[in-house]
Amino acid sequence: MDLATIIGMVGAIILVVIAISLGASPMVFVNPISLIIVVGGTSMIVLSQMTFSEVRLAAKAVVKAFKMNLPDLSATIEEMLEVAKTARKNGLLALEDHETSSAYLAQGLQMLADGYSPEMLKDVLDKERLMTLERNRAGARAFQLMGDVAPAMGMIGTLIGLVDMLSNMDDPSSIGPAMAVALLTTLYGVLIAQIIAHPIAEKLELRTVEEERLQALWADALLAIQQGLNPRVVEQMLLTYLPKEQRDKREAANNEAAGGGAEQPEMP
């Protein structure tokens, strides 16, 4: 569960609710017609710019904004080093017993155990990564569209309300309440865009980058393992995926461990 996303969105909603409740009449901010215009209109416009398959992908992808916790890259490198050591010691066939929660990694390990050629392995992993990228971007695109359209629908609703208000100017006392109702659609549109749609779109884009990087790491590791490279060489290849600070710390720790292991106690 991604607490940052939940805390940010729920916190923003709570702040808005508190600000509204501190007013003289909080119920003036509730208008079903305005909500229907914004939510219904936004949904229809987004649907008109996407296919049904993309909408279904977006509905599935939104879960990643709240629940997806990808493995740490450093821990993933450690896992792949263990896989490399297992393959070097027991052969590629032993990799089919390796347990993992990632369908992508599990598929790659099974292909190694089944003896697929390097070209076939790379082709399948690349295509799988591309399809994952397209699915994630479909979700991000849907919510980005929603964030762009919602304020516009709010403005349309406001203009409708203003036209209705100006056409009934006989009672001056009704102008204020009518103006307030007209402005609500703009408020709803901005709230939906800035508190819901855009944050989810940005988080999905972030998840896309993170997942693509992780799958690229797995693919490089699997191809290196298939070539029978030394685990130390595999580690050096995979360290390029870490930020420089983490990479330097890890290399320093490896050098220290290697130096410590090389020291021999003096004979009396």
Automatic annotation (TrEMBL):
GO terms for biological process: bacterial-type flagellum-dependent swarming motility; chemotaxis. Keywords: Cell membrane, Cell projection, Cilium, Flagellar rotation, Flagellum, Membrane, Transmembrane, Transmembrane helix, Transport. The chain crosses the membrane at residues 7-27, 33-52, 145-163, 175-197. It is a multi-pass membrane protein. It comes from the Bacteria. GO terms for cellular component: plasma membrane. Residues 100-211 form the MotA/TolQ/ExbB proton channel domain. The keyword Transmembrane helix applies. InterPro entries: Flag_MotA_CS, MotA-like, MotA_ExbB_proton_chnl. It is found in: Cell membrane. Residues 248-268 are annotated as: Disordered. It holds the Pfam family MotA_ExbB. Coiled coil: none annotated. PANTHER family: CHEMOTAXIS PROTEIN MOTA, MOTILITY PROTEIN A. Belongs to the MotA family. This is Flagellar motor protein PomA. It comes from Halochromatium glycolicum.
